[in-house]
Amino acid sequence: MKANSGGTELIVDLDAIAHNVRVLREHAGGAAVMVVLKADGYNHGAVEVGRAAVAAGAAELGVTTVGEAVRLRAAGITVPILTWLNNSDADFGAAIAADIEIGVSSLDHLRAVEEAARRLGTTATVSLKVDTGLNRNGIAPDEYPDVLKVLRDLVDEQVVRFRAVFSHLAHADEPGHPMLDVQRDRFVEAIATAEEHGLEPELVHLANSAATLTRPDLAFDMVRPGVAVYGLSPVPEISDFGLRPAMTWQARVMLVKRVAAGEGVSYGHQWIAPHDTTVALIPAGYADGVFRPLSGRFSVWLGGASRPNVGRVCMDQFVVDLGDNAAGVTAGDTAILFGGGPNEPHAQDWADLLDTIHYEIVCSPRGRVVRRYIGGDEAAGDN
Questions:
Q1: pTM of this prediction?
Q2: Which structural domain, as residue segments, surrounds residue 167?
Q3: Catalytic positions, please?
Q4: pLDDT confidence of residue 6
């Protein structure tokens, strides 16, 4: 993220990341843990989170694109890394050269990996992502036998190394949903079909965050948590599972001023001061990831109290009402937009207001927002 002079920043607690990985390892039982770092570590910083996760016992890392995977390797991370969402014209050569495991979801993908491996004269490491019912990414059931036949030949020629079979769940955040059992059974069948072709996977994995925490029967050889690593419960209606949110979004107050009774605040005067009051200006807006539909509906933690937003959220700023409790709040003070501390708003609060999920909330801060790390070995680093 870019530096700015507006005092708007994300604080990422790497000790919280380490804590969450340890919680997930406990729930995984004997299964290994692959930490998912896609989308720049859910906007927490993939390299920094990856290092903290590995130090806390994560055995492997997972990302979507080749570019994400190669960046982790370039940062000196040496554990196995899997990438699984690439077009057939992706730079598989770069992945092979960096010893990245490539998840393939079609015969075209496998052929593209084959071409890159033959061109480089280097064996590619391949895993099969099978579609067990999400009907999104993954090898379709009717294409699966053809993929296995080609893969068998490529393994025999040592063009590729066959590492794993994996899939993804459609209803993991509903632990009792019958589709989970359907997908488990289809997954087991896909593994057996691979073995019938003489393809014995080194490991198999299916469980995401929710399944890791609520369905131990789906752990198999490895679990693949994402959002829980960042301290956000995948099933908040059940429990927080002892996870600690790693992200705090905060901004420094730019201005404190009086507003007279009857005066409107921000565009369109959606809010009219019912009495003389004091407001504070926060230099973050929808260009930074503060959703405009939150206007007049959310609060920040400032000066030891919850302060409601009044008026419309603008591109660069929003206003909060300090009311009769303005004493001690001055320009330069820190307002917590969301975090994980006592009394602070949480990402889940924003998600509830916007009828979305906390994944989207933590992925939203952007642009002028500075990312800063505490804990671990990154306490002084910006990204």
A1: 0.95
A2: 31-230
A3: 38, 267
A4: 62
